[in-house]
Every structure is written in structure tokens, then in C-alpha cells.
Specification:
446 residues; mainly beta; Methylamine Dehydrogenase, Chain H; globular
Length: 446
């Protein structure tokens, strides 16, 4: 065989290998499920006796905590991480089988932690004792789910009084009894005209008064159900849903509903779904996935795909743009507002390289930027930011507009991370909870 033929064959072989690798990466992004890695366990037996429901002094009952700000009421956290953090307990059974990826963050009230999971054919819900890590109850229902980024839930549950609400990636909104896990009612948004987006229903349910509200997309972009009976109360708007949680905001002393959908941001009356105003913000693939930041009469919102960020001054009747730029482009990592400054990750959330930034809310001015802590998610407690990169490493950061200040770090806080660790850290009642696919780890933080 002539030398040039051999060279051509080698080049073609390398091209095929490279093409196959990147083709697999594209498949995972578009259609595949991240395979589970690390230890997997069977679902354990439940506790013999069901403990009564109680409350803690710093509970985390819903997405981003009680005020939707990503801030925990926990005080007295440990800031010397040189000898690590103590693991209280860990479970490895939230996802059963190798292709059942589920990303939902846990919610906590007192001795109860609720977190969704998945097996081959069913959406799963687990209630775990926060003190011991033992299983109090589990629930399930059959749900046909697509495989893009896994068939499991993305949306975080919402605990309200003696009930908890979950929203599966296939559109099932389910109400469970918090005490023992009895399934009280189940509705699917597709029955009201909802349309599943490319990466599944992801909008965390929001409970307001007697309502539970979700994004349904299609002919039912926003849907409100009676939180006790599950009956339809109203539906509003049509179009592509986003991947962001619905939140509330006080505007001129009236409670309003903010929906970050596939085409932009809308303000609604929560009582009837009437649209008051909308901001156009169309991204590639319709991915508006971060939670808007609210401060008095200002809304800050951001998206990836070169959309950047924007600050709005709002009234009940409309809004004006304070500023708009591309300093921060958060794909689905929620920034946090502290003393007039926004702190958060910027860049694509598929690889562990990005920038963590501080910008001034009033002007959009970049105060500083660092690439020292990878790409990831962040939460806040007791004057500190806790950042988790996509490899499962933790960083303790002091928020300071004058410069980046890393106080501590904990390498491999999550073990056996083979795919991006997207689930945001949760802090409640002095403990830190990290979720990666089938794993859930509880660290002592105070």
C-alpha cells in the first residue's frame, strides 16, 4: 500500500473517531439521557413509623427558598473548609436504571425532604428524613417520557401546608399528602392544550393562596389549578413555554405574577391570569431558563445564547428599560442579588469553563469577573455564596464588589461526576444538600 494511501486512511479514521465523539455529544444534548455513574442502590424499605410533620427555623420549601431569591435563613455556617465538611448521610437510589436522569432540586421542611426521581417507566417521589437519611415514604405514577437529558423531573417541588406539589417532565402536576405520601390528585397540562418543549416541562410549580400555577405552553402557556381539588381555575396566553419558575412580585403594593416564557417575560394578575404587559426576549431554542431577580420596582433577567441581560423599571401598566448589555449571559444558572450587586455565572452550562461575575444592578457595570471556579450554580447563606461547578466541586465565596474573594473550597464534594452536575445546592436548617442524578448528599454546614 502506498504511503499517501495510508496517510489518507489514517486521516479518515481520525475524522470518523472525532465525528463519532462529537456526534455522541450532540445526541446527548438533543435526545440522549446522561448515563448514571457511581454507586447505585435499590430503593430501601420505608421507616416503620411515620414521624409527625414539623418545621425548622430555616426551611427551604420551594424553588430558591421562601422569597425566590436563592438565599437561606441558615446562620453560623462553617467557613473553614480546610478539613472538609462532615457528611451526615447520603443516598444513591433517586434514579433507577442507567438512563433515568432526573435533575430536580430537593425541598425541605423540618424533618422532611422531598425530591423527585425516576425508574424506567415511572416518575418517583421520595420523602426522606432530614435527620437520619431514612426513607419516610415514596410515591410513583406511570409516565411516558422522552429521553433528552433523561426522562426524570427537572422541576423542583413546592411544599405548602400539609401538601407537596411535583411537576414531571411529561406535564404531570401531582399533589401529595406531605405526612404519608398519599396521592391526592394528578393533572396533565396537555389535557388543557399544553405543549411539551424540547427538553421537557421544567417550570417549578408556584403556590399562591388557593392556586398552584405552572407553565403549560401551547394553548395554555400559564395554567392555574385549585391547590386542594386540582380543578382548573384559569389559563392564560398561548405560545412556547420557557424553563423558568413562575415567581411573584409586589408592584405598587399589589401582588403580581412573573412568567419567563419562551418568547420573553410577562406580568399577570395572579387572580385571573390577565396579562398586564410583556417584554420580548426571544432566545435560540426558546430557552429562557433563569429566574428573574426582583428588587423593589426593578426586575433583572438574563439568558444565554448571546442574549445577555436587562434591567427593567416596572409599574402595573408597563415598563421601561434601565439598561441592557451582554456582560452577563446566564444559560440556566440563577444569579443572586446582594446589597445592590448581581453575582452569578455567565456562559454555556454544558462545559466546566465559564466566568463568575459581579455586576452593579443599577447600571449594569461589570465590577469584576473570574474563571477560577469553573461553570456552575450558586446559592447563598450567612453572608457567603456557595458555588458548585459542573464537576461537583464546591467553592465558598465572599460577595464583595471590589474583587473576587474565595474563602474556601471542597474538591469532589460530589463523587463520580461524569456529566454536568446541574442541580443547584440547597441550604436548609444548617445543612447543605447536593444532588447529582441518583445521588443526594447531606453535609453539616453549621
Amino acid at each position: 500500500m502506498k504511503k499517501y494511501v495510508k496517510i489518507i486512511l489514517v486521516v479518515v479514521s481520525l475524522a470518523l473517531i472525532v465525528g463519532a465523539y462529537y456526534g455522541y455529544q450532540v445526541y446527548k444534548i438533543i435526545a440522549g439521557s446522561e448515563p448514571l455513574s457511581g454507586k447505585q442502590e435499590n430503593i430501601p424499605s420505608k421507616m416503620v413509623s411515620i414521624p409527625p410533620i414539623n418545621k425548622g427555623i430555616a426551611d427551604w420549601p420551594n424553588w430558591r427558598g421562601t422569597d425566590f431569591e436563592g438565599k437561606s435563613a441558615t446562620k453560623g455556617i462553617k467557613t473553614d473548609w480546610s478539613k472538609g465538611l462532615k457528611v451526615i448521610w447520603q443516598v444513591n437510589y433517586l434514579c433507577q436504571d442507567k438512563s433515568t436522569a432526573s435533575w430536580s432540586a430537593p425541598v425541605i421542611q423540618g424533618n422532611r425532604l422531598i425530591v423527585p426521581g425516576r425508574d424506567k417507566t415511572n416518575d418517583l417521589v421520595f420523602c426522606i428524613n432530614t435527620d437520619s437519611g431514612k426513607l419516610i415514604w415514596s410515591g410513583s405514577y406511570e409516565a411516558i417520557a422522552e429521553s433528552s437529558h433523561g426522562p426524570g423531573s427537572r422541576a423542583t417541588p413546592f411544599i405548602s401546608d400539609d401538601r407537596v406539589y411535583t411537576f414531571g417532565r411529561s406535564g404531570d402536576l401531582v399533589c401529595w399528602q406531605l405526612l404519608d405520601g398519599k396521592l391526592l390528585w394528578r393533572k396533565n397540562v396537555k389535557d388543557e392544550g399544553g405543549a411539551e418543549p424540547s427538553w421537557g416541562f421544567s417550570s417549578t410549580p408556584l403556590v399562591i393562596d388557593n392556586q398552584v400555577i405552572v407553565q403549560g405552553g401551547g394553548k395554555a402557556l400559564v395554567i392555574a389549578y385549585d391547590k386542594v381539588t386540582g380543578d382548573l381555575l384559569w389559563k392564560s396566553m398561548e405560545g412556547d413555554m420557557g424553563y423558568s419558575a413562575a415567581i411573584t412580585m409586589k408592584i405598587e403594593d399589589e401582588l403580581k405574577l412573573l412568567i419567563y416564557h419562551g418568547k420573553g417575560l410577562s406580568c399577570l394578575n395572579p387572580s385571573d391570569g390577565k396579562v398586564l404587559w410583556s417584554v420580548s426576549w426571544p432566545t435560540s431554542y426558546g430557552v429562557n431558563a433563569t429566574t428573574p431577580v426582583v428588587y423593589k420596582d426593578i426586575i433583572f433577567h438574563t439568558s444565554g445564547y448571546k442574549m445577555g441581560c436587562e434591567a427593567l423599571k416596572v409599574t402595573k401598566n408597563g415598563y421601561s428599560v434601565l439598561w441592557k448589555n451582554n456582560v452577563l449571559e446566564a444559560q440556566h444558572s440563577d444569579p443572586i442579588l446582594i446589597d445592590g450587586y448581581i453575582y452569578g455565572y455567565s456562559g454555556q452550562s454544558a462545559r466546566n469553563s465559564g466566568e463568575f461575575k459581579c455586576i452593579e444592578l443599577s447600571t449594569g457595570k461589570e465590577m469584576w469577573s473570574t474563571n477560577d471556579i469553573g461553570q456552575g450554580t450558586t446559592t447563598y447563606a450567612d453572608g457567603h455564596l456557595i458555588c458548585q461547578d459542573l464537576k461537583g466541586n464546591l467553592f465558598l465565596v465572599a460577595p464583595d464588589p471590589s474583587g473576587f474573594k474565595k474563602i474556601g473550597e471542597l474538591k469532589s464534594a460530589i463523587k463520580d461526576v461524569q456529566n454536568p452536575a446541574w442541580t443547584v445546592p440547597v441550604i436548609a436548617n444548617g445543612r447543605l444538600y447536593l444532588r447529582y442524578l441518583q445521588q443526594l448528599i447531606c453535609y453539616q454546614l453549621d
